[in-house]
Amino acid sequence: MPDESPPVSGDAEHWRTQYNEIAASAGRLAHEVRNPLGTIGLNLELLEEELRDTDTARDRRMHKKVQTLQRECQHLNLIVENFLQFVRTGTADRLPVVLNDLVGEFIEVFRPVAAAQHVELVPHLAAQLAPVLLDGRMFRQVLFNLCQNALHAMPDGGQLELFTYERDGEVVLEIIDTGKGMDERTQSRMFDPFFTTKDGGTGLGLATVQRIVMAHEGRIECESALNRGTRFRIRLPVAS
Ligand code: ADP
Ligand code: MG
After folding, report:
1. Most buried among 112, 159, 174, 177, by the most CB within 10 A?
2. Do 166 and 131 lie in a common domain?
3. Is residue 112 part of a domain?
4. d(CA 139, CA 192)
5. 207: how many CB neighbours lie within 10 A of its CB?
6. How much distance in Å is there from the Cα of 203 to the middle of ligand 1?
7. What percent of the chain has pLDDT over 70?
8. Residue 149 and residue 75 in contact, taking contact as beta carbons nearer than 8 Å
9. Smallest CA separation from ligand 1 atom 1, residue
10. Ligand 1 atom, smallest distance to 203 CA
11. Whose alpha carbon is nearest atom 4 of ligand 1?
């Protein structure tokens, strides 16, 4: 019987092209959605202001509805922004960086955010670290996404430790929180795009982190215990 299916390598090539086109279109779609969404948000804000101090029952009902629309619009915005970050992780623009410098800068910015939630940031940065090849902008995103999740996991406050050290030709970053931890189902799905256990979550934070780490030829692992806390460990190859 003649085999009419294309050779396997051609088939894979075909699907890769298809996949890349769809990925590019998805990014474009998110980008196109962004502007009209901004206009909608702005007009809702004006409407909300107009209805804020009204006293008829009808206007109060309208005010409530406008506020609901505003919340939904903010959530859509967050999805679009997070999705754009997610699709922009393909190619990293890497330069030799000492990880401590980047982590140090991040801590300065994030410390007040954490303090506002009664979370103490505790850095343990190695005295000496070999440089790694990093895209600074992307890596700040990694730090932000992981630390923001940690804050979400500690609504009543806690401790957030950041370690850096060198081991076996790799620079290691650990982020450890004393938050609520994850059950097994969450642990097995946390890196899936759009998987979230939060009201108003997008489920794109860890998927983005994982893609960025992969774009840096690094590895990420997680250990978590319910009601005890969570540790993320990222290993990056030392720049040769
Ligand atoms: P989102 O934050 O929008 O929910 P993420 O991809 O950042 O999406 O995280 C996916 C899920 O992983 C979260 O909804 C949460 O259940 C879990 N998670 C991530 N980080 C932590 C953490 N530090 N502690 C507990 N759970 C976490
Ligand atoms: Mg998140």
Report:
1. 177
2. yes
3. yes
4. 20
5. 22
6. 7
7. 96
8. no
9. 203
10. 8
11. 196
Residue 189 shares a structural domain with residue 214? yes
Same domain, 45 and 126: no
What's the alpha-carbon Rg for the chain, to the nearest Å? 22
Whether 141 lines ligand 1, by a CB cut-off of 6 Å, is no
**In this structure, which residue's CA is closest to atom 21 in ligand 1?**
149
Q: What is the pLDDT of residues 16-61, one digit of tens each?
A: 888 888 888 988 999 999 999 999 999 999 999 999 988 899 999 9
Is there a domain that residue 7 lies in?
no
For the CA of 79, the nearest ligand? 1
| Domain of 30, in residue numbers | 12-90
Question: Ligand 1: which residue has its CA nearest to atom 7?
Answer: 205
Question: Is the C-beta atom of 177 inside 6 A of ligand 1?
Answer: yes
How do residues 184-212 score in pLDDT, each as one tens digit?
999 999 999 999 999 999 999 999 999 99
Backbone CA torsion sign across 144, 150, 151, 153: positive
CATH number for the domain spanning 142: value is 3.30.565.10
CB atoms within 10 A of CB 239: 15
Q: Where is the domain boundary, 30, 57, 90?
A: 90
Q: How far apart are CA 11 and CA 25, in angstroms?
A: 21
Please tell me if the CB atom of residue 194 comes closer than 6 angstroms to any atom of ligand 1.
no
Same domain, 108 and 206: yes
Verify that 193 and 126 share a domain, yes or no.
Answer: yes
How do residues 83-107 score in pLDDT, each as one tens digit?
Answer: 999 988 877 899 999 999 999 999 9
